[in-house]
């Protein structure tokens, strides 16, 4: 393919619309259920996380805030909503909900298995091995002390 905006669009190289996911977690001993929309991560969301990390921000909260959106693609949370505090009037998200949200984000944004594997041909052995001191001593003409 010749690289062009049209070719990239046809290949699905731009962030797709959010994906609807059903999630469950427990709060106060009761099972809670919700429908969330998970945005596909994009160049913008990745660089925002890097910026947050460089500024000492919470990159996990940044990931939740940038990826959990409503059906129109607008963020549901701010980073402050995720971590809680005096400005928000509530505490941090409970651990189970945070983990469930991160799992949903991971499911939507996963890289297919093998896509990042380095393709290379196996190297041929020279027929010698230097995995032990004894074999190294034989090659050097010195006796091993082990």
From TrEMBL:
Chain intervals for the UniProt region annotation (Disordered): 113-146
Low complexity bias (residue ranges): 123-146
InterPro entries: Phage_TAC_12 (IPR024410)
Domain of life: Bacteria
Record protein name field: Phage tail assembly chaperone family protein, TAC
Organism from which the protein derives: Pseudomonas zanjanensis
Lineage: Bacteria, Pseudomonadati, Pseudomonadota, Gammaproteobacteria, Pseudomonadales
């Amino acid at each position: 393919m010749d690289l062009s905006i049209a070719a990239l669009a046809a290949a699905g190289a731009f962030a797709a619309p959010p994906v609807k996911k059903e999630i469950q977690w427990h709060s106060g001993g009761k099972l809670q259920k919700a429908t969330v929309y998970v945005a596909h991560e994009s160049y913008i969301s990745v660089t925002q996380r890097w910026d947050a990390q460089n500024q000492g921000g919470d990159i996990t909260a940044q990931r939740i805030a940038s990826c959990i959106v409503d059906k129109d693609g607008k963020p549901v949370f701010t980073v402050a909503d995720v971590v809680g505090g005096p400005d928000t009037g509530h505490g941090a998200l409970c651990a189970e909900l945070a983990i469930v949200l991160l799992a949903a984000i991971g499911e939507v944004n996963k890289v297919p298995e093998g896509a990042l594997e380095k393709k290379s041909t196996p190297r041929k052995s020279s027929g010698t091995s230097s995995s032990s001191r004894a074999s190294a001593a034989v090659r050097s003409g010195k006796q091993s002390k082990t």
